[in-house]
Amino acid sequence: MVVESIRLRLTPLVQYRLRIADTCLIHAQRLGEWCGHGPILEEDIALTNLSLDLLGQARALLTHAGKVEGQGFDEDQLAFLRDEGQFFNLTLVEQPSRKASAHAPGGDFADLVLRNFLVATWLKALYGRLVSSSDAELAAIAAKALKETRYHQEHAADWVVRLGDGTEESARRLAAALDRAWPYTHEMFVRDAVDDAAAASALGPRRDELAADWQRGVAAVFSDAKLALPAATPFVSTGSNGVHSEHMGFVLAEMQTLQRSFPGGKW
Amino acid sequence: MSQNEWPLWEVFVRPKAGLDHKHCGSLHAADAKMALQLAREVYTRRQEGTSVWVVRSSDITASDPGDKPMLFDPMEDKVYRHPTFYKLPEAVDHM
Prior knowledge:
Chain A has helices at about 10-30, 40-70, 75-80, 110-130, 135-165, 170-180, 195-200, 210-225, 250-260. Chain A is mostly helical. Chain A has one domain (about 10-225, about 240-260): Ferritin, core subunit, four-helix bundle (Ferritin). In chain A, helix 1 packs across helix 7. The longest helix of chain A is centred in the first third of the chain and has 29 residues, at about 40-70. By secondary structure, chain B is of the alpha+beta class. Chain B has one domain (about 10-90): Phenylacetic acid degradation B (Ubiquitin-like (UB roll)). Chain B has a three-stranded antiparallel β-sheet, with helices on one face. The interface of A and B includes residues 42, 46, 151, 158 and 162 of A.
């Protein structure tokens, strides 16, 4: 059976919301891949809890974005029936975090720890601003998510310090993970027309406005972790514009297969 | 215990203000801060708690189960230690 993909009527303000929603959704999906594979039972449960928190945020944000978009798409349709080009998550969160491949080294617990930290620090800065959004519903979602995200950030930061300031091997693997993740962090602070539209209507901050806050949070933890900041690179990833890395298709294939095979299936 | 194994911690959760912390289980963690975080993840994910204590299991001194006859059995026939021989005034009702 072939299930028609949905097509969104995109406006900058819909895309702005989907950037946040999709970042949470795909990050949750990647985190979920660690279920049953955590280094110890307790951390395995912790990772799954983080994933479920993010999925909860994604659900609220998708439902909200669907209302604003106006064609009546619900959270499930938005998550499972959009094609790759209509997802607007940060490219960082779609990178493999558990299984390495020839094209994507990594798949180390250190990759997961570091990504969690970089993204949680970013979401914390973002939600911190969105609580005063001109859209009351978005502000309410952000207020709830901010509590969870503060915990995620602390949990992840502790792990970064533990690995960075741990053994020689853990420090080496964390530094390698940082080299892999770092080029994708630029996209967190790019400013474009979508950001400008959101800022103009006081819906939320431009991404470049989050940079100082994020850098402060990252620098403090990296200093405790004895981790050096990598040099800047010119590469800027473009997932937030719907142009993704080669990994996105595989993430979606796995995430969407059930709803695509059994449309509207519930259990 | 192997060198790679993290120490064991006992977890106590206070279900709501005014109630006592209750022992609810144990977990492995590298240090106290991690033990608190993991206790939150493992034991309070369904809103069970408002406060958590963790203590290294090795810091607890426990009675020896073999001493049970000596320590606890003698209390069996000392019913007079229960305040059940007093008549309560009606007004007190359930105490």
